[in-house]
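fyi for ur records
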Amino acid sequence: MAADPRPALTRHPRRWSKVIWGTAATLLLAPWVAMHFTREVDWAPGDFAVMGALLAITCGLCELGMRLSGSTTYRMGFGVAVVTGFLTVWVNLAVGMLGSEGNPANLAFAGVLLVAATGALLAKFRPIGMARSMLAAALAQVAVAVYAFAGGYREVVVHITVFAIAWLVSALLFRAAAKQQQG
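which gave:
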C-alpha cells in the first residue's frame, strides 16, 4: 500500500505558539496604548475587532503551517506566505496600496490572496504544490503591479513588487522543502 502523500499534522514546540500569539497580542495592544499618548492614533472599537480577527486568522494559519510539517524550510515558506498575506490585507485596510483604502482597484490584491489560498488547498499543502501556488501568487502580484503602472499608480509599483518578491521567496522555500522531502 502506498504512503499517503498528504502532509500529516506534526507536533511543534509550544514556545512558538506563545511567541506567535504574544506578538499578535502586542500588535493589538500597541494602538490602544498609543491612543493614550497621542491623537495621531484614533482607533474605534471596530478597528480593534477587525485587527483582532485578522491577527487571529494569521496566528491560526501560522499554527497550521507549523503542524503541517516538521521541516524548518517548509515552516519558513508557510510563514513568509502568511505574513505576506497579512501585510497585504493590513496595508489595504489601513491606507490602500492603490489610492485610498476605499479604492475598488485594491480588490485586485484579493485576487492575489485567492490565487495563493486556492493553490494551497488544491496542492493539499504538499511542498511542491505550495511552491507552485506561491509562484502563481508572485506572478499574480506582478500582474497587479503592471495594472497599477498602467492605471497611473506608478509611485507604488516598487512597493507592490516587494510583495511579489515575498511570494517568490515563499515559493523558493517550499521548493527547497520539497527537495529535502525527496532527498
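The two ends are 21 Å apart (CA to CA). thats all i got for now
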